[in-house]
Design brief:
The complex is a heterodimer of chains A (236) and B (213).
Chain A lengths: L1 H11 L10 H33 L3 H13 L2 H12 L4 H24 L3 H9 L4 H35 L8 H10 L2 H33 L19
Helix pairs in contact in A: 1-9, 2-5, 2-7, 3-5, 4-5, 5-7, 6-7, 7-9, 8-9
Chain B lengths: L1 H5 L1 H35 L1 H16 L2 H12 L6 H25 L3 H9 L4 H31 L12 H10 L2 H29 L9
The chains are: A mainly alpha (236), B mainly alpha (213).
InterPro entries (chain A): ABC_transp_perm/SBD (IPR051204), MetI-like (IPR000515), MetI-like_sf (IPR035906)
Subcellular location (chain A): Cell membrane; Membrane
Family (chain A): Belongs to the binding-protein-dependent transport system permease family.
């Protein structure tokens, strides 16, 4: 427990929050990097998943993608892309995108797929266009499951972004790997604590988002706690 | 291929390390999750805190967990036990929910019928609840096993040797073949263990097909 006290003392030392090696800067790097990957994954995965769920075509592809992606070790992807693309942000961007897409896609697909067909039929019967059905009926009803998929992806990206420092010196992995190289356990532990806190914070934000979406989708239902979560997770 | 044939003995050693670093946590997590899941399914008071705790545990990145474990358990930072404990915890985080849902899926009428036939609580668990919950649990066990195999590699960056060492070595020395070998073997190990679990499930639970999913 003494080790934790030392790591916390390191985190509370104002000297470690100033200048170019400031921990605040690392957190900012970590969040911008993860946010950018997640936004790109959502921009590709959500429309594709919604389309698959709406038309019912390409279901096998989603299943194969999500179960296959689970087996692929993140570190392997990061290092092979790192060798191919050189040291920089491109390799981790690409590796993380590959990891973030399947859960987003699966969440969007499963969400739309779970919408009651009678509801969709009803919408069609009152004269809604396909576009209106997708945007005004299916998306709001699919939102809790869809956000669950994004939540899985977000957690995976945040944790893998830590490993990304192994191939490109960025984010909260940086103090961790500095600590590993120097044999400085206190710095490693401080970095690990920060990443853990950041992940927990992101998880809680997405939990809140998800229950807000669930309340909107089913205003009269008894609040079910976080049932709508894409089951696949492969954290780094 | 040339690289592989020259380094076959190293790769073989790492493969064995990887196998036991995966198998031990899978077995341990299974053994711990079954009673936990049963408790969660039968006692509402345990269910919510258990599932919240395991959910949050799963949100912690594995690298961070691997770094915290030596400080919590007083282990050397590079001890293989760090990975074993960490992956067991993750395994429980994944399986406990699946086990709770599986035991929850056993119908109340079925259990009352078992009681009426004179089963003790202990006998009912082994002869009614576990056989009915088993096939449902198998699905989460497979997900957990595959993730565990792929997570073992993360330990390599803090010096716990496994197939992940092929990634770190290959990256530092610029050898593509090393990383590709590691990637292929990790996926092969994952699918092999998955196949073993499916096979064991089929042999141990020949009735599983009779149960509607």
């Amino acid at each position: 427990m003494n080790l934790f006290a030392e790591a916390i003392a390191y985190l509370l030392d104002p000297a470690n929050w100033q200048g170019p090696s400031s921990l605040g800067l690392r957190i900012l790097e970590h969040l911008t990097f993860s946010g950018a990957v997640l936004a790109l994954a959502a921009a590709i995965g959500i429309p594709a998943g919604v389309l698959i769920g709406h038309t019912g075509r390409g279901r096998g592809l989603v299943v194969a993608l999500t179960s296959g992606a689970r087996a692929i070790p993140t570190l392997g992807l990061l290092t092979i892309f790192g060798l191919a693309l050189g040291i920089g942000l491109e390799a981790p961007y690409l590796a993380l995108l590959v990891l973030a897409l399947p859960p987003v896609l699966a969440g969007a697909y499963a969400g739309v797929e779970s919408v009651d067909r009678a509801t969709v039929g009803g919408a069609r019967a009152i004269g809604m266009s396909e576009r209106q059905i997708v945007l005004q009926v299916e998306l709001p009803l699919a939102a809790p499951v869809l956000i669950g998929g994004v939540r899985s992806a977000a957690l995976q990206v945040i944790s893998t972004a830590t490993l990304a420092a192994y191939v490109s010196n960025t984010g909260l992995g940086r103090p961790i790997f500095q600590g590993v190289k120097a044999g400085d356990y206190e710095v490693m532990l401080a970095g690990a604590l920060l990443v853990a806190l950041l992940s927990l914070a992101v998880e809680l934000v997405f939990q809140a988002l998800q229950s807000a979406a669930a309340r909107r989708a089913e205003p009269t239902a008894v609040p079910a706690r976080a049932t709508a979560r894409a089951p696949e997770r492969n954290t780094a | 291929m040339q690289w592989l044939s020259q380094n076959l003995h190293i790769v073989w050693g790492l493969l064995l390390d990887h196998l036991w670093l995966s198998a031990v946590p899978i077995v341990l997590a299974f053994a711990i999750s079954v009673p936990l899941g049963w408790l969660a399914a039968r006692h509402r008071r345990i269910r919510t805190p258990l599932l919240t705790a395991t959910g949050l545990l799963y949100a912690i990145p594995s690298l961070a967990l691997f770094i915290m474990i030596p400080a919590i358990f007083g282990l050397a930072a590079r001890s293989p036990w760090v990975a074993i404990i960490g992956l067991t915890l993750y395994g429980i985080a994944l399986l406990a929910r699946g086990a709770a849902d599986a035991f929850g899926s056993v119908g109340r009428d079925t259990m009352l019928a078992a009681d009426a036939l004179g089963h003790s609580a202990w006998a009912r668990f082994w002869r009614v609840e576990l056989p009915l919950a088993g096939p449902v649990m198998l699905a989460s066990l497979r997900v957990m096993a595959v993730s565990t195999v792929s997570l073992v590699t993360v330990g390599a960056v803090i010096g716990i040797s496994s197939l992940g060492t092929l990634f770190t070595d290959g990256f530092q020395r610029g050898i593509d073949a090393s990383i590709v070998t590691g990637l292929v073997l990790t996926v092969v190990v994952a699918f092999a263990l998955d196949a073993v679990i499916v096979l064991v499930g089929r042999v141990a639970m020949p009735w599983r097909k009779a149960v509607p999913a």
